[in-house]
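Most newcomers find our protein records easier to grasp once they have seen one. Sequence and backbone structure share a record, each on its own labelled line. To make this concrete, we reproduce a full record directly below:
***
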Amino acid sequence: MDAAIAGQRDAIARTRAPVEQLRRTTEALVRYFLDHRRESLVTIRDSAAADDADLPRILERRHPYRAGIEDIVERGLDMAVFAVDNSKRASLVIVEMCEAAVGRFYPDGEVFGDRVAFTYGEYAVRIAGVVPRRGRPDPRWPPEFRPLALGIVAAAVTSDSACMTVLIIGASVAGVSTAQALRKRGFQERITLLGEERHQPYDKPALSKDVLAENLPGNPPTLLTKQRADELDIDLMLGVRAEDLDLRRRRVQTDRGERLTFDRLVLATGVTPRTLPTSRELTGVYTLRTLDDALALRAEFDRGPRVVVIGAGFIGAEFASAARARGLDVSVVEAQRVPMAHLFGERVGRILAGLHPDNGVALETGVGFDRFADDGQGHVSGVVLADGRTLPADLVVVGIGARPATDWLESSGLELGDGVSCDAGLRAMGVGGSRVYAAGDIARRHHPLYGKPLRIEHWTNAGEHAEIVAADILGQQTPRAQVPYVWSDQYGRRIQIAGRPAEGRLSALRGGIANGTMTAVYADPAGTAVGALVVDDPRTFMSCRKAIASGADVGGLDLGPVAV
């Protein structure tokens, strides 16, 4: 790139090109600054021997002409005239703009390093002729070359609106929804969406439900087809994993060696399942997080295995339900004495846990995991409990929660701690985080409704985050915060939760699992509804959800007779 810069500078100085030639050169260089992906940099590097007249043609063939480029060049020329007529006043403006230009662009370091970037910024200042060098304008740059410098600077300082690159890491619900929300809200520039899995982006709740069902085809709903991605002009990169984030250069390195630059970055990598010791050393032991996991488990079902599920949370309970629906022998192991008591209290926790034995599933509570037993050939043969008992098993699913997928961000300078720490607008906190957002399960947001940082692993939360991020990037009004909502399907029952039951105490309870429907409402010390759990009663659930959103008193809910 040093050679390319020198070649361009020498060609201009040698030919003393007229304004029109300068205009074409400016146009090519502006397009380069606006479109600084690695491919552009390689093109510039490989065309180092080309003269300034060939450069626009080369770039035109490689990258389509961008709308608005002529306006940017014209603006640069107008600024040059302004600088000549008002040099003293303009000098301060130009210096600020050049500093912004230098600070804004950090392309691929292997091709166009920091030293060259800063040098180019200095060139722009000197070409403009308004900043003295040792008290005098740089004699190497005559006044007629000012349009070139000012065009570059104009492109840089207007790049946020003229050509912004939004890079989204994670083809999750949050990642895909963010890309779609940007387009829906009018964003017209580049969006690159990177996903680690090779599959088209899909809806993950189906993994523990429909994908495992015998009477369904095993395909989760697709969030973004290739055709739709093309229609929305979203650059979809699948089967690619992000491995490093350099905030100073504003680039992400992938496992394929690519360095993707960005103007705005959205982190939507979700969570990683927690595992148990030696779980990766044996076949037949799984977690359930990806489509490949679900398809492998579906295939395991056909062999009629004895199943043990470790963890009685939502994922574990839903998988146990799916396995039992296939007629398999299933045991669930839970370290807590009462499953999910930390979320819903012991009374409701016991009622929900009763779904397992009611449907023929053995439930072991208050006992921990000790180790896996194997058959001597590397396959699991059982689960040894902390009390010494062994549960026979040919298939084990570990569902003991998940942790935010932030390992690759450890050296980035972002503030990490149970996810990426964010403000209310989901802007990441930490050194260099002003252009970075987090969305979905990975985001630990200062929640406006609760006045404290929260990380919420809900499907609907991902969609809400997408709208917030898109609005903030575009400078639009932030959408109103929503009451958290999640659901779970177990043994043919629909369990819906609104708000945060753990923030209050059980205040009203109607019905029960045996009676077909159940409603549990939670309130703070003042009696205000803060959470609800409802089984198979959509109408009552909507009433509870509205009451939580409005801060209504639990007594105002028409629940009829209650038992507490």
About this structure: The first helix runs from residue 2 to 15. Residues 271 and 404 are 4 Å apart (CA to CA). Residues 2-162 form one domain.
